[in-house]
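Quick start: what a row looks like.
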Amino acid sequence: MEIIEVKTKRGDTLYGCIYGAKYKDTCVIITNGTCGNIFENKFLQIIGKELEKSKICFIYAHNSGAFHRLDSPTKSGKPTGCTYELFNNCIEDLQAYVSWAKQNKYKHIILGGHSYGANKVVYYLSKNQKEKIDKYILLSPTDISRLNNSKKISVKALMPIATSYKKEHKLDELLPVLFDNYNQFTARTFLDFMNNKNSKNLPIYSENGDWKQLHKIKQDGLFIMGANDNFAYGDALNHLKKINENSKTKNNTIKVIENCGHTFKHKEKELSQIILEFIKN
């Protein structure tokens, strides 16, 4: 595994982890969800190693929402990480990695995202329909609006605080209550997560969003979920079928992996084999 650096159009540097860089036929790029990273999402390390064995290049593409907080200087002068993430930046983030792969002469590019990263991939592909992406992969895709309506993620506590911070011109200050008892957001990031319509592109359960972005994607996709993923609310198969039914091609591959959850713990090799089969077909 090696580290690559890519620069976004806004000038910020992102760091990707690449396996099998010398294999120039196919490059699989998968980006993270909220605070995701190569260290905590170990299933991505195994995907990288398994694809490299099959002479396929794999990049885990840390976007500007990777990790909780990174204080390394950026051109914008602001720290990065999910604490400060704005969804629309994913267009520039993903383009930086796609452009890197093209510049390095990979023949085929497959673009994927995990969790919130799946929403980012759908948005990117809907806005870049002429980009030469062969296929796409959605790992553990979520309905962001349904997630935001959950009683356990502190939305009711956070919303009035974030709204008052906005009125007081304190959007970049940290909120005093953790989101989902895990993530600390600025008021700006929290409001973006709650209100940005562009991320509400997989409305499997909710009515606060639409399928227009997915309808624009011409490529065939692979949709994978663990049977025990909490974001499927007990029915991962129908969760994925609903996405397929609302896609443009309706010719996507659906796979549910038994006895695992959102990060495919203990089923990493099975996940890798499913991805390999999808690449080769």
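That is the whole record. Strands lie at 2-7, 13-19, 26-31, 57-61, 108-114, 135-139, 220-226, 253-257. The domain at 2-280 is CATH 3.40.50.1820 (Rossmann fold).
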